[in-house]
Amino acid sequence: MVQRDGPSGLWGTTGALAYAHEVIDDRDRDLGTVMSYLVGRPVRTVELAKALGVARSSYYAAREEGRLISADNLLRLADVFGLNPVDLLVRYGLVSHDAAMEYARDAGPAPAKTAAADTAGLRPRMDLPPL
Question: Residue ranges of the chain with pLDDT lower than 50?
Answer without folding.
Answer: 1-20
